[in-house]
């Protein structure tokens, strides 16, 4: 196997490292950095995406303590994976069967709530440019949305709730409606501003990716 980008070794070695990370995740007091590391490796080495999905399905099938902290850490990483990557069709079918089985066996449980969230996310995920930010991972662990602040010329800053799938165009349209500009002949867009430059955000760009770049 050819070495991956950055400082990665072979896919086989990286798969072993990820497996060790998953084992560590179960007892990790602050799992967020570890989760982001797993996601980043999958983004850099796409062939490992299916491997991690399969490992997470395995870890959440017949766990020693269903609904315990370790079990929920696996479900939380599975949630982050579902908002970042789509598995191959065979793995996706396997994953959906696992989600259905979990909801049937543990109705109204936290695992069932994660399973429902993951199923909905898989229907929207198209791939990410960046892995979720630390803030996004935290809100995904709670199955919540992020609050994004947009500064509007001539108007107060607006707070907008966004998900991992919200595009710049969707936010721009919501702000136009809020500000009563729906009948304006002007075109509106979001701009990303840093210390060095200001540039428009593409209409199809995911706001979550923009926030990760800021992080």
UniProtKB/TrEMBL annotation:
Gene3D superfamilies attached here?
A: MyTH4 domain, Phosphatidylinositol 3-kinase Catalytic Subunit, Chain A, domain 1
Which cellular component, as a GO term, is one annotated location? Answer: cytoskeleton
Q: Which residues form the MyTH4 domain?
A: 1-141
Source domain of life is Eukaryota
Xref: PROSITE patterns? FERM_3 (PS50057), MYTH4 (PS51016), RA (PS50200)
Locate the FERM domain: which residues? 146-215
Q: What is this protein called?
A: PKHH3 protein
Q: Which organism is it from?
A: Mystacornis crossleyi
């Amino acid at each position: 196997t050819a070495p991956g980008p950055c400082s990665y070794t072979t896919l086989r070695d990286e798969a072993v490292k990820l497996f060790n990370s998953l084992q560590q995740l179960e007892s990790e007091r602050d799992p967020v950095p570890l989760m982001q590391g797993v996601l980043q490796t999958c983004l850099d080495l796409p062939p490992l995406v299916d491997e991690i999905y399969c490992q997470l399905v395995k870890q959440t099938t017949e766990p020693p303590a269903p609904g315990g902290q370790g079990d929920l850490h696996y479900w939380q990483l599975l949630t982050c994976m579902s908002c970042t990557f789509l598995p191959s069709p065979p793995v996706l079918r396997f994953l959906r069967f696992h989600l259905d089985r979990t909801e049937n066996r543990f109705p109204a449980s936290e695992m069932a709530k994660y399973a429902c969230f993951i199923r909905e996310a898989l229907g929207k995920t198209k791939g990410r440019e960046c892995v979720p930010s630390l803030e996004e991972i935290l809100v995904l662990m709670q199955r919540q949305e992020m609050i994004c602040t947009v500064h509007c010329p001539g108007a107060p800053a607006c707070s907008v709730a966004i998900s991992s799938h919200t595009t710049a165009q969707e936010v721009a349209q919501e702000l136009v409606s809020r500000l009563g500009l729906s009948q304006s002949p002007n075109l509106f867009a979001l701009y990303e501003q840093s210390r060095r430059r200001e540039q428009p955000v593409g209409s199809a760009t995911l706001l979550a990716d923009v926030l990760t770049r800021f992080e």
